[in-house]
Amino acid sequence: MLSIENIEVTYHHTVQALRGLSLEVPKGRIVTLLGTNGAGKTTTLKAASNLLRLENGEVGEGRIRFKGEDTRHIAPDMLVKKGLFHVREGRRIFAEMTVEDNLIAASYALDGRPGLKADFDKVYDFFPQLRERRKQIAGYLSGGEQQMLAFGRAMIAQPEMILMDEPSLGLAPKVVEEIFETIRRLNAEDGTTMLVVEQNAGVAFSVADYGYIMESGQIVMEGDVPTLRNDPDIQSFYLGVG
Ligand code: ATP
To answer: Which end of the chain, N or C, is surrounded by fewer C-beta atoms within 10 Å?
Structure first.
């Protein structure tokens, strides 16, 4: 569904963030992209959703295709309409608006029309806390609830594929579990394809079928999750074993 082939990305014509990176996310699968700070994970997602230009980033060599179509000249909002939704790092909700208005705004952004009640009910069914807090100002939600809201905004768009940037960042283990359970459920129930960027390999492996490990702008290892779990380097660097 998403295919990235041998891309090079440079910021401000000087900082090379990706060096010939390739990855594949097949339809209906959950794939994780792991790496330490600064490895280039966020840049990879921004390249896929065409957000780099906003930050003086540029894809040089290489090819990116979503559902077989070259995405490099498709505007980010058009990519959302085509079914690719990027849940960005830091959650990016409207802090001064209520939970409900955040969801309504997501539906307007999609096609200029208000969403259907069933769409909102589905988000509230996945995240009952959001239903309880639907009249509250989003900026006052806990970090975990804000991540749920960011996820809920993505669900309103009914994407075929979601790019998730470090959903576990800064959250308590129990909340992380809840977010990842939702990733698993949305994939199982709707067949939503997912590319999940993480530093927390333990939780990422609990949902993913396949994983890529990146360092300094390149993929250094890839494989099925059971194989990665048994790799001694992954165990010591990412899983804290040994
Ligand atoms: P983190 O987990 O810390 O978010 P990451 O793996 O997502 O890290 P990126 O944010 O993609 O890494 O950054 C990759 C490299 O590109 C880093 O060296 C970073 O300093 C650089 N970089 C990222 N964004 C910009 C930008 N807007 N301008 C210049 N350099 C950037």
So the answer is: C
CA dihedral 32, 33, 37, 41 (to 10 degrees): -130
User: Is the distance from CB of 234 to CB of 201 less than 8 angstroms?
Assistant: yes
Nearest CA to ligand 1 atom 9: 40
pLDDT digits (tens, 9 = 90+) for 164-212: 999 998 888 999 999 999 999 999 999 999 999 999 999 999 999 999 9
149: which residues sit within 8 A by CB, 6+ positions away? 91, 93, 99, 102, 103, 127, 130, 138, 141
Query: Parallel, antiparallel, or unpaired: how do β-strands 15-25 and 2-11 relate?
Result: antiparallel
Ligand 1 close to Cβ of residue 17 (< 6 A): yes
User: How many other CB atoms are there within 10 angstroms of residue 62's CB atom?
Assistant: 17
ipTM of the complex: 0.95
Per-residue pLDDT reduced to its tens digit, 134-144 = 999 999 998 88
